[in-house]
Structure formats: C-alpha cells, structure tokens
Amino acid sequence: MLNRNAVEERFAAYYHADSEVIACAPGRVNLLGEHTDYNDGFVLPVAIDRSTCVAARARTDRIVHCYTAQFDQADSFPLDAIERSATLPWSNYVRGVINGVQALYPHRLLRGADLLIDSDIPLGSGLSSSAALEIAIGAAFQALNHLRITGTTLALLAQQAEHIFAGVQCGIMDQFIVALGQADHALLIDCRDRHYKPVPLPSQVSIVVSDSGVERTLSASAYNQRRAECAAAMRSLQAHRPAITALRDVTVADLDQYGATLPPLIRARARHVVHENARTLAGAAALQAGDLVTFGTLMRASHISLRDDYQVSSDALDTLVAAAWSVPGCYGSRLTGAGFGGCTVSLVQTAAVEPFVTAVTQAYQSHTGRTPAMYVCRAAAGVQIIV
Ligand code: GLA
C-alpha cells in the first residue's frame, strides 16, 4: 500500500511547501460483467488495495502545475484554456478531469493548484490506473476549491475526460468503482441508471490478480471497434424489436429468434453481451448467498465467451486462466478488464493462495518463459480525501 506520508514528503520536497489535501483513489478489478457497461448492462467490480495518491495545494493564480513521480515528468497549463497535451499522455487525464470539474461551475473562478502524483498501481495492465488518476485528481481539485461533487458525478466527468482527452470510448465501470467502492464488498452496478448494490465477499476467499506482463496492444482502437460492433448489433435488432435501446434490452430468447439476421461476427459480439449480463446477475446472487462454486463456474464461462465470441483474450491470458482452473482451491478465473493483454482475476480459498501462486507462476513460466506478477488483493474502499 502506498505510504501517504511519503507522498506528502515528496510534495514538500518538490514544491518547497506543505500540501493541503491528499486524495487517494484505488485501482479496480472486475469479477464479472465484462464489456457490458457501455451496453447499459451490469458489472460486478471491486476496488483494490493499490492506489494513486495526489497531494495538492491551492495556488493564488489560475495555473495548474503537476508532477508525476512515476514518470519523473512535470507539466503545467492555465485553467483559462485547457487543451490536450500532444506530448504527455498522463497529463491528459489531469487536464480532462480538471476541465470537467470547471465545466460544472461555469460561474465560479476556480483556483489553480500544485499537484504531485504517486501510485503503486501497475501501469497499462488493466487495473484502471487511469481511472484512479482521474478520480484522485478530481477529488483533490474539488477539495482545494471547496466544491461538493458527488461520487457519481465525479465518475461521469472522469469518463467524459477519458472520451475527450484520451480518445477511449470507455464505459462507466472503472471510474464508478474507483469513486464509490466499498471495503470487503463488490458492487453490482446497473450501468443504465447507475444504481448499485454492495455484495459482501465471503471472508474465506482471496482475490488473486495475475499480470501477464503483456502490454495491452492496440487496446484503444480494438476497444472502440467492439463498441461500434455492439451498436451495430443493437441497431439491427431494433428493426425487430423497436423498444431495444441497448444490448441490455436483448434477451436470450430475442437472440434465438432474430440472431440469424445478424452477420456472424456481430451475432457473436451480441451473444457475449447478452449472456454476460445474465451471468453477472446470477453471479451477484451466488456471491450474496456465499455460493462460490457457482460463482466460479460463471467466471469460467465468462472467460470462454470473452475468448471465443468477443475475441479479446490472448495466448498469455488463456495460459494463466487454464493454469488457475486446474489448481485445487481456485473457484474460478477469467481475464479482467478490457482484455487484449493485461491481467486475470481468480477467486481462491484463502488457505490455498500460496500453492495457487506457486502453481500458476510455474505453469506460466514454462509455457511462455515469462514470470507473471501476482497480486493478492483485498476489496478496498473508493477514493479517500484527507484534508
Ligand atoms: C475498460 C473500460 C470499462 C469496461 C471494461 C470492459 O476497463 O474502461 O469501461 O468497458 O474495459 O469491461
């Protein structure tokens, strides 16, 4: 866990002044419900005990200065004209969120800030380091300016920032769980109306994240393409059932009846989403009832569907889940997040975690020659602001 005092000390050393607030936002791992959020569907993520912290101090002018310890890079921009950075991708998350916060208060002159970012969330491995950065920046900036933005609004404006400033047409899941996660619980989120329900995680189970170490290649363009394919499926099915406004509204019976009218690839994408929504609702009920065996079976079915119908898995991810499935004490395992590389998530009996880590590491090494990073995670709370 990132040491908050160390972040404050870094701030003092860099800016020669004390910070006024520190906001820490967690990474996330999704247990079930992949590529359903932008189809108005259901997701079941947890916030994890790795975080991005932003130490901050208000300025008297309208300039934002920002330093990131991870890249050892700095940037600054005026609040009066926030544009995309052509050279510093990380800064676009900062710029996008501050731009979004400002847009909520068109009649207030917000103050600039000195910001310092530090993080122990691995970058680019699908644990939502970008959502954590967005939410931590938004939380720190609103605290400095004495604003009261709700978690849902913060999540929505961070999602917009990602669309406009980073060019990824992401859904709401990552920003939402990072803002609103609850310790020891997953959240069942209805991405249509954004209602959510905390679902307790049984105490005898651990969340193990295995990082394939393979950077997610072409993920932004492939992700946006999947989104477009879902929209195409939705439009075709609307011709038969005009009440459909998203794949969320499509039932298994609809697919059986009208699926043949869709091109095979589009039908496979829709099949994943429709069944994944059903799995997520069934999974939340199973978890609530403490039925980890059913939950694990649903995770496995989710991975197979992501691999075959949605085609977002990779050899590395398939190797990790196949190894996990064969270890005693592992309830279930699947790729997590957008896919195309990145991480898998496994639910493992706490008593079996050590042999699980050893077995999966060895299997992955012998198949790929690479060593996976393995993180045993706790379900943590969403963003915290310390003034
Ligand atoms: C990324 C996006 C999310 C979601 C997942 C896939 O993490 O940011 O909105 O679509 O992929 O489930």
Give a structural overview.
It is a single chain. Helix content is 42%, strand content 22%. It is α+β, with helices and mostly antiparallel strands. It folds into 2 domains: 4-200 and 381-386, 2-Layer Sandwich (Ribosomal Protein S5, domain 2), CATH 3.30.230; 205-377, 2-Layer Sandwich (Alpha-Beta Plaits), CATH 3.30.70. The strands form 3 sheets. Strands 1, 3, 4, 5, 6, 13 and 14 form a 7-stranded mixed beta sheet that branches. It has a 4-stranded antiparallel beta sheet with strand order 10-11-9-12. It is globular and about 60 Å long. The site of alpha-D-galactopyranose has 10 residues, from α5.
Q: Quickly give the structural class.
A: alpha+beta
Give the number of helices. 11
How helical, in percent, are the residues? 40-55%
Count of individual domains? 2
Query: What is the average of the pLDDT values?
Result: 96
- CATH architecture name of the largest domain: 2-Layer Sandwich
Largest beta-sheet characterization? 7 strands, mixed
Shape: globular
User: Could you give the distance between the termini?
Assistant: 19 Å
Using the coordinates above, name the CATH class of the largest domain.
Alpha Beta
Would you count the extended β strands for me? 14
Sequence stretches where pLDDT stays below 50 over 5 or more residues = none
Which fold does the CATH topology of the largest domain refer to? Ribosomal Protein S5, domain 2
Return the string of H and E elements: HEEEEEHEHHHEEEHHHHHEEHEEE
Q: What is the alpha-carbon Rg in Å?
A: 21 Å
Give a list of the ligands.
alpha-D-galactopyranose
What proportion of the residues form beta strands (DSSP E)?
A: 15-25%
